[in-house]
């Protein structure tokens, strides 16, 4: 299980991703370091300490952010510009997180393993009408993790709880609309 995983409380437009410790996770010992939206350093994440992955998320500047080239599985998270961000094409899992525009972003169907270890779908997300519908990101038997159905802006953009291992309680806008969470 992912132990003591904390993601962040992110206020997207008052925008400081302050001390966003994405995973102080003992399983991966990975840290996302202090991120401030215009000069955010996302991390040097060593997913397994055995350096099996040694992926580096490089310096991210909010409108010209390079997220990284991750050696994990020859997957590349390509140059991300916050309003026209291309998240990645990951060859190993044949997973594509397609062009994301922050106000009309589509994180389209991603099946991480084809072997259905993850069978994850991140569906159309529009950040202000914002639905990440039935985003079963992991249903990952490896960690018994589930990223539950999150409707991004029908909830408090988010107040959504991803994972049964409680990977996060992320409040992106802390909007005044009602919390919505589905399992």
Describe the overall structure.
The model is unreliable at 1-183 (pLDDT under 50). This protein has strands at residues 40-45, 55-60, 65-70, 75-80, 88-90, 95-97, 158-162, 168-171. It has one domain. It contains no helices and eight strands. The chain is an all-beta fold. It has a six-stranded antiparallel beta sheet with strand order 1-2-3-4-5-6, with no helix packed on it.
Give a concise summary:
With 183 residues, this protein is an all-beta fold. The protein is built from no helices and eight strands. It has one domain.
SSE map:
Layout: E1 40-45, E2 55-60, E3 65-70, E4 75-80, E5 88-90, E6 95-97, E7 158-162, E8 168-171
Antiparallel strand pairs: 1-2, 2-3, 3-4, 4-5, 5-6, 7-8
Signal peptide: 1-17
Keywords: Signal
- Give the neighbour order of strands across the main sheet: 1-2-3-4-5-6
The tally of structural domains comes to 1
Q: What global shape is seen?
A: globular
Cα(first) to Cα(last) distance is 19 Å
Question: Could you tell me the strand content as a percent range?
Answer: 15-25%
What's the Cα radius of gyration?
Answer: 15 Å
Order of helices and strands: EEEEEEEE
Oligomer: single chain
Beta strands, count? 8
Sheet having the most strands: 6 strands, antiparallel
**Contiguous runs where pLDDT drops below 50 for at least 5 residues:** 1-183
What structural class do you assign from the helix and strand content? mainly beta
What is the average of the pLDDT values? 31
Q: Percent helix among the residues?
A: under 10%
